[in-house]
Amino acid sequence: MSAFNLRTAVTSLTPLLESLGQTFGFGATMTGVLGMVPTAAFALFGVVTPAIAHRLGLERTALLAMLLAALGLLARAFVGDVSMLLVTSALALSGMGMGNVVLPPLVKRYFADRIGTVSTMYIAVLQLGTILPALLAVPLAQSAGWRVSLGAWSLLAAAAAMPWIGVLWMERHGRSRQAQALAHAHDCAVVAGDEAPELACTRRVGQVWRSPVAWGLTLMFGMTSLTTYSMFTWLPKLLTEAGGTRALGGSMVALFSTMGLLSALLLPALAVRIANPFPLVLGCVLAYLGAFAGLLTAPMAAPLLWVALLGLGPSTFPLSLTLINLRTRTPDGSSRLSGFVQGVGYSLSCLGPLLFGWLHEISHGWSWPFAFLAFCLLVLAWGGWMASRPRMLEDTW
Questions:
Q1: SS3 content of the chain, % helix, strand, coil (to 5)
Q2: Domains of the chain, with CATH numbers?
Q3: Range in 25-34, 289-298, 360-369 the model is least confident about
């Protein structure tokens, strides 16, 4: 339930940005700012959440994450200007950024004997929470208004908070067999004074930023996120300017996310069987380039094909997450590499939606924005080449 809520604030908003721009009187620049808020929040809370979780504990931090998401999503339905839209979106995304960090170690804590199965479920449900808001945003807005369309998702975030309240209550007060088993699982993982051992600071034996493995993964992850969130933000407007409806824009964002679900389920299993997965990176770059060419020259000729190709490109996202474990020897190395890749990678990606929109505004076309993304793909390929070479972080830091 928590995983479902990690992207709803993003894809429930982007299909409505054009109509909200008319309502609140903002243009391409503010659209780009709204598009960069998710990656900025994910970068910031990728850095600060370990300290929060170390103090509060994983379960309480997960509860806080869902409450912040619910509050931000609900408040966003009552905004009266674009500044409050920005603030409430940031509030919701702060909770989702926390969830990004704490849910994987919670899987490890409570499902240590089923990590593969539960992780696959986690990725699949996260993608489902990306797809459905994009698919339903415009129909909900047309039938009940944009406020209902934006605010309805707060109910799911609030519902996801309830099980964490139950977990915390059962661990303290439960007397049933299930409660005792839950408390035992927690006690096995937690020692006195350390509520979140997976996120605790450990003795440093190397510097992640010195490693080409870390920078390669960071560039691949960051450029993938930059391109993905640029498309989340601007794909609906591109299609409506080409003659499509707003409903088409929303459904194409949903298709874009659906292709990400397929790659998230297939790429990790494929990556572990290949010593050097750089050919997979090149395949993703070629898919991106084919999609860019189609969307630039004939967007309405075959939008399903262009967006399906576009959705294959971000397969480098699950590949990056898989390589974090494949390119490290220890859990400490893995957690430190993950923090570096997500913190720096999301920071690099923040300017993507803003620059894409600014280039569109000054050029009054889409050629310059796509040229910018094509340059980012070169950086992605370079990072993929460094990350894919079969060597370990601990040998290079």
A1: 85, 0, 15
A2: 1-196 (1.20.1250.20), 206-397 (1.20.1250.20)
A3: 25-34
